Amino acid sequence: MTTPAAGATTSSTDGTQAAVVLGWGPVINGDEFNYVGAPDPTKWKVYSSPGQNGNGIRTAKAWYVNGSVAQVTGDSSGNTGGMSAIFDRNIAPYQRIEARMRTNQRDPQYHPVLILWPDSNTGCSEIDYAEGTSNTSQMHFWLHYPTCGLRNSATVTIDTTQWHNYAVEWSPSGIRGWIDGVQWFNDTSVAAQSMTAPMHETVQLDWFPAGYTSPPQLSWMQIDWIRQYAPPAQ
């Protein structure tokens, strides 16, 4: 994949993007993963901690950037990874972000997720704009409102082994999601409009072993790029 020139929003290999279809303008931040080694520490905080609900370990060793994509791998022992963006912290609320992602024929115990998570690491607000579950043929959008226990969602059948572009717009009027430039989630409710605490991008491959008696098969999630655009006007 190629790195966009200054102000560019697309290239011939990037697929259909909501940012282009909707005219979001130039990329203002993000990561093209056009380097080799660990995720750029000026852009990402890589997790070193227990996994989702205490399952397995999130380790920096699970990540590798090969000059084109960032890959996080989950192994048969529950060693996996996640990371949170630094580049979009402590900004005014509201975001426009798009990410190009795919998985292998993953084990249903490993769930890929692209999330906007509160900077404060507290509260119930959460925008899971692409989340896989044990049904490996589906992708979900989960919007968790500030009022704990309330949420809205959407589900689509999709081949996640192919590259797809997942976009989210969090604006004063609500929250919307797109896959490959096609809108699949829209919530303009009062509850959605009440979300105003700053949030940042996270990328995780989470292990959910509950109900399974065998260890998971090797699974991975690749990110080609993540691009942040100027947020909607307040």
| Spans where pLDDT lies below 50 across 5 or more residues | 1-12
**Distance between termini?**
34 Å
Overall pLDDT level:
92
**Domains, number:** 1
Report helical residue fraction.
Answer: under 10%
If you compute it from the alpha carbons, what radius of gyration comes out, rounded to the nearest whole angstrom?
17 Å
What sequence of helices (H) and strands (E) makes up the elements?
A: HEEEEEEEEEEEEEEEEHEE
- Give the total of beta strands: 18
Described by the principal axes of the CA atoms, the overall outline is globular
Q: What structural class do you assign from the helix and strand content?
A: mainly beta
In the CATH hierarchy, the architecture is Sandwich
How would you summarize this macromolecular structure in one to three sentences?
Helices cover 3% and strands 46% of the residues. By secondary structure, it is mainly beta.
Task: Report what the structure shows.
The structure is a single chain. The protein has 234 residues and is mainly beta. The protein has one domain (18-229): Jelly Rolls, CATH 2.60.120. It has helices at 18-21, 190-193, and strands at residues 27-31, 36-37, 44-46, 49-50, 57-58, 63-66, 70-74, 79-85, 95-103, 110-118, 126-131, 138-144, 151-157, 164-171, 174-179, 182-187, 199-207, 219-229. The strands form two sheets. Strands 1, 2, 6, 7, 9, 14, 15, 16 and 18 form a nine-stranded antiparallel sheet that branches. Strands 3, 4, 5, 8, 10, 11, 12, 13 and 17 form a nine-stranded mixed sheet that branches. Strand 10 and strand 11 form a beta hairpin. The radius of gyration is 17 Å and the shape is globular. The model is unreliable at 1-12 (pLDDT under 50). One of its GO terms (biological process) is carbohydrate metabolic process.
